[in-house]
User: What shape does this take?
Amino acid sequence: MKLVNACKTLIKDAASASFDLYKVMIPVIIIVKLLQELDLIQYLAVPLKPIMGIAGLPAEMGLVWATSMIVNLYSGLIVYISMVPTMAPLSVAQITTLATMMLIAHSLPVECKVAQKCGISMMGQLIVRILSAFFVGFFMHLVFSKTGIFAEPSKILLEPQLPESGLIPWALNEANNLAYIFVIILALFALMRLLTYYGITEKLNELLRPILQAIGIGKDAATLTVLGLSLGITYGSGLIIHEIKSGSLSKRDVFASLTLMGLAHALIEDTLLMMLIGAHISGTLWTRLLFAIIFVGVMMRFYSNEPAIAVNDLD
Assistant: This one.
């Protein structure tokens, strides 16, 4: 009976967290689709083209980055691959720079809206991620150009297949993605409970506490942050929303955790994805993660202590 009740509670909590995310994600997904159908993303990329050269990239890469920021990484990769036959190949240094910028700033309408659902400024997260991506891109270009490393032409190892056209395939794909989010969140909730039951959560917190506390993240948010870094900000936010409702997280912890996750998340999956188009792991993983840690550590030195976020703040 206890096991049955525990399972019911687990499913109820996962469904509640997923529903909170769906309320944010579904309207944004529809708006982004409208932008795609009306072919407006190319116009949003226009302001980026003149400044791409500062990061050592061709102006055309502004459309690739804009597509990634507004839609998602997969769409950005498809745009890039469609351009490859019509231009000189990018060097490994250039594609690493572009890929790292895309990883820091992508899917912004959805991910920043989800962060807002956690009580954090959507506009603040947008600014932080876009400016951080641009700064890292400029820094990497400076290092690569001065050292001459990764100057060889990049090679695409695997091309993603184009998605089926039409509204019905798109709707089915998005519905599948939303169902997948529920399954992942359910699994994460179960994992969190198992880790807590066997005392592993506390051991992980003790291990990570020095690093996370050094950058301003308290022990209550440690495990959530690690899961978000590993899997993605959407899943991490789902867990955070649940913890906020229980009153166990301060606004300071939420801000630090979400900012770190925003700058560096899905460290394994997204890094491997970018390696398929020839990007080097030194930028897509290590530079991204190191920058995120340093940036959040510095920012939190100027962040005032604030009380826990109230449940009403999430409505």
